[in-house]
Every structure is written in C-alpha cells, then in structure tokens.
Amino acid sequence: MPEGDAATAVQVRASAASANPKNQVQSVAKVFAVLKAFGPGATELAIADVAARAGLDRGTAFRLVHTLLDLGYLRSVPGSRRFRLTLRCLELGFAALSAGDLPEHAIPLLREVVPDVADAASLGTLDQGEVIYLARLETGLDRHGMVRRPGTRVGAYATALGQAIMAWLPLGEQIAHLQAVDRVMLSERTLTDLETLLARLQQVRARGYAVSDGENAYGLRTVAAPVLDAAGRPVAGVSLTVAATRQDVDAFAHCAAPVALRIAQELADGLRLSLGAIGLPPQARGRA
Predict the structure, then answer these.
(1) Integer Cα distance of 236 and 229 in angstroms
(2) Residue 152 lies in a domain
(3) How far is CA 204 from CA 5, 123, 138, 212, 275, in A?
(4) Sheet holding 45-46, edge to edge
(5) Looking at the structure, do residues 75 and 217 belong to the same domain, yes or no?
(6) Total domain count, the chain
(7) Residues 181 and 54 in one domain
(8) Which pLDDT tens digit goes with each residue over 201-252?
(9) How would you list the strands of the sheet with 130-138, edge to edge?
(10) Distance from first CA to last CA of the chain, Å, rounded?
(11) Rounded to an integer, what distance in angstroms lies between the CA atom of residue 102 and that of residue 269?
(12) CATH number at residue 267
C-alpha cells in the first residue's frame, strides 16, 4: 500500500473507532451532557431545564443530577429547585491545564502524525516577519538539511507556516511583516514580490490553509493551518511536511490538510476554553 494511502487508512480507522456507537458508553455521554448544560447565562438550572438542554427525558435528568449531587459536582441552590456546578468541576479542567503552555499541549498532537501522515510536524508563531518554531517532531529529513529546532527563525514569507498565520491578519499587518525581512530566493519557487505574496495570502485565507511545494527548501512539501484565538486572531500555526519523493503535492494536501486543521482547531479550543491559562510561552508572547 502506498504511504499516502496508509496514512489515510490510519486516520479513517481512528475516526471510525471513535464514531462507532458500540465503542461509546451512553450513560457516560449523558453525564457529560448534564454537566455541559450549565454555562454562561445558564449557571442555575432546574431539572426540566437540564433535560431540555442536555436532550434527555426528565426522569434520566433527575437521576443524573442527583448522582452528580452525591458526587459533589452539583449543588442545590438554597430556596429553589435549581442546581449549579460546584468548584470541584475545576479538577477536570486543571488536569489538562497542568500540561503547561501551548507548545507542551501541541507536542502530543504532533507526535501522533509523525511518521504516518508527515515526516515532520511543527508549531510556530510570528515575530517581525519571521516564524519562530516552538515545537517540532520529525523523522528522516536530515538529508534535506532541515534544522527546525525550537527557537529557529525563518522568514515567514517563504514558509507555509508563516503564510498560514499572516493570512488571518489585517492587510496592514501583513505588509508590515512582509517588509520586515529581506525576501530572498530560497529556491526557484520562492515568492518574493510583495503584491504576489499578498495575493497568495488571500488564497490561503479563502482555502483555510497554506500549501508550499519546495518554496522554502528543495524537495519538501508542507501544509499549514492557523491557530486562532477566541477573537479569530492568529496566535500560532501548525504545519506538516513530507519529502517530495513520498507524495505528490495534491495527494499530500488532500491527506494532511484535514489533519493540520484538526490539530490547529484542538489547540484553538484549548486557548478558548482555558480562558488564558493556556498560551504561548513567555518569550514568544505578543509576537503574532
């Protein structure tokens, strides 16, 4: 089986396993539906409210609410028949938050796709026209002379990772980043003209991800997706790279783009749900 087909098969099997109802414990799903029924504007709910918001019948909602009361995750509101979440629910979130900053949360996700989907997977951010690599997992790219250790800086104009981040910035900021560095030819495919690059960023924004075919280094193909904060501003980007001998660019983009977008979205969800507890490491903040 070709490597691209094998990588796709891995993703399909994983998705099928997670989506198969036979692999799900419905009572657990219902418990989390009850917990997620509470939220902004719905901090105190009656049984009927919980049932409606969780998609449950009232009898099931009643039993689950009282189970969660006994376990300490819900509390009765004095003088009413309403309930609210307790601070004990924070234990569930802090277990994830304790993993640290964005790169530390990204590393396990990047590790999952190397080498099945890509030869390398990276997380980076933007600083004055350059991409700063924050995390990197790779195998087998030594022969290409690609060194992208955390802290490595590369001109954003010539990288899919940089283009994926810049495409979600306002036009003025795009121009500022593109003019902040000398735009030199890194290969015969490198784009250096300002107007051409701005047009490329429009294409990236419309498509939802960036694709590079040997523009940054000969023999390498990359797809990249932005990590957006709650306001839709790019904080970082995720990229996946393969050697050109492994897959043609269209096949790789078809296979890898959904994976890059999924990882980027999972990290974006972490940024949003953590309310600022997860973010860039201190030395990289405020750069994108």
Answers:
(1) 9
(2) yes
(3) 25, 18, 25, 11, 28
(4) 45-46, 82-85, 74-76
(5) no
(6) 2
(7) no
(8) 999 999 999 999 999 888 899 999 999 998 999 999 999 999 999 999 999 9
(9) 153-155, 130-138, 120-127, 234-243, 220-228, 210-213
(10) 41
(11) 11
(12) 3.30.450.40
Higher pLDDT, 152 or 13: 152
Structure-block tokens of residue 141: 């790219």
- How much is the pTM? 0.71
Q: Report the C-alpha gap between 180 and 223 in whole angstroms.
A: 24
Q: Using CA atoms in the order 209, 112, 114, 241, what is the torsion angle rounded to 10 degrees?
A: 10
Q: Are 165 and 234 in contact (CB under 8 A)?
A: yes
Is 48 within a domain? Answer: yes
Amino acid at 11: Q
d(CA 110, CA 135): 9
* Backbone φ and ψ of 279, nearest 5°: -165, -170
Closest CA to 225 of 259, 264, 270: 264
**Quick one: CA dihedral 207, 134, 268, 129, positive or negative?**
negative
Domain of 254, in residue numbers:
102-284
Render pLDDT for 246-266 as a digit per residue (tens, 0 to 9): 999 999 999 999 999 999 999
- Tell me, yes or no, whether 131 and 236 share the same domain: yes
Query: Can you tell me whether residue 124 is helix, strand or coil?
Result: strand
- Is the same domain home to 89 and 115? no
Token pair, residue 154, equals 């590369």
Q: Give the span between the Cα atoms of 34 and 52, in whole angstroms.
A: 10
Residue 148, C-beta contacts closer than 8 angstroms, at least 6 positions apart? 120, 122, 133, 136, 138, 154
